[in-house]
Amino acid sequence: MILEFGLLGAVEVRDRGEAVEIGHVRQRSVLVALLVEDGKPVPVDRLLDRVWGERAPLRARDTLYGYVSKLRKLLGLDIERSPAGYRLTVDPSQVDLFRFRALVRQGALDEALGLWRGQALDGLESPWFDALRESLHAERTAAELDRNDLALAQNRHAELLPSLRRTAEERPHDERLAAQLMQALHAAGNDAEALLHYETIRRRLADELGADPSKPLQDVHQRILAGEAAPEGPRQLPAPHPWFTGRTNELKALDPSGTVVITAIGGTGGIGKTALALHWAHRNLNAFPDGQLYVNLRGFDPTATPTPPENVLREFLEALGEKTIPAGLDARAARYRSLITGKRMLVLLDNARSTEQVVPLLPGSDATVLVTSRLKLAGLVAAHGARSISLDALHPADARKFLEARLGAERVAEEPEVVADLVSWCGGLPLALSIVAARAAMDPDFPLAVFAEELREQPLDALDAGEIGTNLRAVFSWSVAALSDEASRAFKLLGSTSSEDISLTAAAALLDRPATKARMVLRELENAHLVQQHVPARYRMHDLVGLYAADLAADAGSRLADFYAATARAAAMTLEPHKVLPEHESGHVLEFKDNAAAMAWFDAEHACLMTEQRSALQRGAFDVAWMLGRTLNNYHLRRGRTSDDVEAWLGALKAAEALDDASKQATAHMCLGANYVELGQSRLGHQHFDRSLALFAQSDDHAAHGSAHRAMAWAAEFEGDLEKALHHSLQGLEKFRAAGSEIREAESLNEVGWRYACLNRYAEARTYCEEAMLLNNKLGHPEGAAATLDSLAHIAHHDGRHADAVAHYEEAVALYRELDNSAEQATVLEHLGDVLSAAGDDAEAREQWTRALEMYEEQGRVSEAAALQARI
Predict the structure, then answer these.
(1) How far is the C-alpha of 185 from the C-alpha of 165, rounded, in Å?
(2) Could you tell me the pTM of the whole model?
(3) What does DSSP assign to residue 42?
(4) Which of 420, 446, 549, 596 has the largest count of CB atoms under 10 Å?
């Protein structure tokens, strides 16, 4: 299906132009309530309120589930369910409302208004839909008024007059509309009717509202009386960039918002700040009839010093018609503000170096100001109420459109895979795309593959078109040159890392500074848009900025690797206090107060830890590589990340082999064996098990032997050989008792009991599990207790003790939640649902199964999710 959704009129869905049946009004309401969010989740309670308001029926949730299911089947829609609610994702171009908004932002107002077919959301009824309909009609009215201004500026008054007359009758108090009608009549030579219309609205406002006409309406009246055209102001804007693409959200953010008249557009060098400002300015020229002022402040220009504000004020005053220019910055600024007051003007201050350079150039009021800078200009935001917009890389689709606009759609279409590579290597940086496009345009006979190959081999060399403004290294260097010595050092050290981002605490270790000092240094880099704090206390660089930093990289020693290894050890010891791990020294190691804190750290740092393990292997830091693989194991088990655990243990195995440590190798083989069996690669798994046993046989380490039997017991159960699983469990229990390891003994007692239960030998199962529970409680071992409660619940269920089973499962869920073990929590929730269903409580069973299903899906446990979905 290729669906199009119509909301700007009667709600409709079409497939290649043919109407598609979408059900009755409530089902259509659910579809629209999800569509208008543009891919954002809608909580169930909010969705119910939107569709029914206060008239929701009994079992409204079940009815809602039914509507969603039918919409999925009828239209093949991707409606996702998550803890945040329902999410419907469709391409915005498929929805007329989003096309309307995009066209309005692009200035294609006639085309946008042509999408309307009548009253929005016609046929849908609820308080929420009524409010939404009113809001959409307000958007339509605003677009019509903007379209009228643009048409008048283009002398299209004749074609505009009929609709202006009709609409003015429908909205008799709209002063902006009245002014447009008067201007159109004046341009058509009909001043008498224009003046009569003014008198009519003046009297209406006085009689009905006790108000005088607004100043803009009075100004139009005075110009018509005087027989004047609208005065011409300065028109200093440079031409817009001809191949501008994308930036839909940023253009929307630039539109007027309340009292905000100053906007600071920030971003790294080459991100397209000036292009965005000029594109928006030219698209909104009709909003600034009194003129536009522009200056390049040369804040980061390698060939000139930043332009002093008093020089800029002289140029601005001359452009505004002043013959006598006052001396001194303050006098010039005062005269400038006086001339701007009351005027609808745009002031574009490009490439600012600091807030101090900008402040004297700010009008006192009325005019709109755009400021572009490589810095964030926090002072402008704090002291002058400026709105801040930070530009990020272009979306890949917009980057491709840029290349199509620059090189022609035909040339781009000839090498689609190559173009995808070009877009990827340029990282959505408009300057990089411009340089590649310029080189390709200068050599039109060269295949694009030539430039892609250069980018792949050495991106920064390929992004040099031979002039200073088209050399990416040079452009980045201007930003680095403006840094303090401490920030410059930090930038170079960050270039030595290979992970996609870095936390504040890891950066502090890398810089060998306290976290408070590191934060201030990173703030300077962030202010210069050389790093981005994409989530609180985590920092990343654009790929090309990172490559430039890597060229400058300073020697960081082993500080970052030691931080990761030592802190991962501390986190793993928090999760498993009984674990025996060797010390690893670091001056910046973190401490964790509980399971939740340790798991949160692993969640946040997982990608960095995996990257650091790979880097450690390449550098020959085998102790770090082993430690990271070993410490990630329990985290991976709790999160159900088996594939990641395989990668980590393969790295740890390489490190153990390089260290020639048989015990470490045996442990790695043992864990790899269990992982491969779980992933369905039993043959490979048993090869690792065999190698593990052979290595463990070289020592008399009973605990190690017990761990091997324990892993093989799990694998045997997974493969359905319950007798073999019980045999290995009993052998493992014997070994752990011989080793004096009470923690492992408690865990093994439970596993023996569980396997007896799987063989329907419930009396024996209960004996072992109750002994395990006593020992777990004695040792204060919550993870062992949770696993044993799961076993005891299973036994109680099969003994017909449903209340005991529910109580045990609920206690196990609570413990796993406290331990932040989401993998086991999901499994136990499914088991709890089974018991509730057997007891006849279908509604509560469905609730528990639904929670388990959501967690399976989040964890990527496809087979478990599919099996449970089929049961639900």
Answers:
(1) 10
(2) 0.65
(3) B
(4) 549
